[in-house]
Amino acid sequence: MEKYREERKGNKLFNMVTLSRVTINLNKVAKLCGIEKRITYHQSRHNFGTLVTLSKGVPLETVSQMMGHKCFRTTQIYAKLTRQKLNEDMKKVSDRIGKKYEFPAQNNNKTP
Fold this sequence. Notes:
Blueprint: H1 19-32, H2 41-53, H3 60-66, H4 72-78, H5 83-98
Helix pairs in contact: 3-4
């Protein structure tokens, strides 16, 4: 933070950039990564919410705080549950409860 103290234009720690500047910078990064599609700030928030955080196991409550949302429902709009994440979570639940419960052995020879 001290490194950029001389560049500050107000009482904030870092200078804020405009939304159009963010979009320009996103497209520069996309070009460097070989992505030919135009990328927007809005798309980057959706990707952050879904691919960078939620699909990597970050709880939705934490994602909400990271994205600066006051309302939990707003985060749900950005952070979409992917089928892969759903499958991973179902496997975790299965692994956790599968060891705690036993199914009774079936004996097919007995008649009721």
